[in-house]
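Look over both lines before class:
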Amino acid sequence: MTPNLRQAQLLEEVRQRGFASVDTLARHFGVTLQTVRRDLALLAEAGLLVRFHGGVRAPASTIENIAYRQRQQLNAPAKQRIARAVARAVPENCSLIINIGTTTEAIARELLHHKGLRVITNNLNVAAILSDNADCEVLVAGGQVRSRDRGIVGEATVDFIDQFKVDIALIGISGIEADGTLRDFDYREVKVARTIIARSREVWLAADHSKFNRPAIVELARLGQIDRLFTDAAPPAPFPDLLAEAGIDCVIAPD
């Protein structure tokens, strides 16, 4: 589903609270209980929320990500804003590695008019997008293609990326926890992402506000390994202090 404005706001409210009752949500949004129940039913059917008697909670699995098609729709305006901010910062005539994720795919769309780019990617969606840019050379990593999102993972992918040293890595993430760890769900994808970080002179992380305090099972990196963070809203505590301690340039994409 594509949530409407109220449903998107309701989803964000539940994510921030962790859980909420139907009565609380109805009062907060000034709508009827029937309206809230209908919205919650649709969001739960799409797998974006989990219902229980009298209320709803945010899914908080550390072992399974939200489905790719749902992630494409989730926070789409925020991802587009982030993508524009990243594209403005990417210089022409540089080399990039772009990894798996819906935010990195949004970045690829914003790079369609850049000139002189050489892009290495383990994301077939990114490769397809940037192949429309005649001034962009795209190199696709080998490996196993995941059918759910066309990401490429595995030892062959690691070996391919390990040949290069690029100017900038543009990476997405599933979650950033309060201990400063960057986390994801697939250990094979994480191994590739670690190699991407190691083979890049600068690492730029693109993460919308929903990624802060979101748990996931596999540690990918720590904030200290990131040079720039692009997000759509001021990070909540304790992240401003963590970012400052790590010396990370935090760019908040404008409306």
About this structure: The two ends are 24 Å apart (CA to CA). The chain has two domains: 5-60, 69-252. Residues 7 and 254 are 23 Å apart (CA to CA).
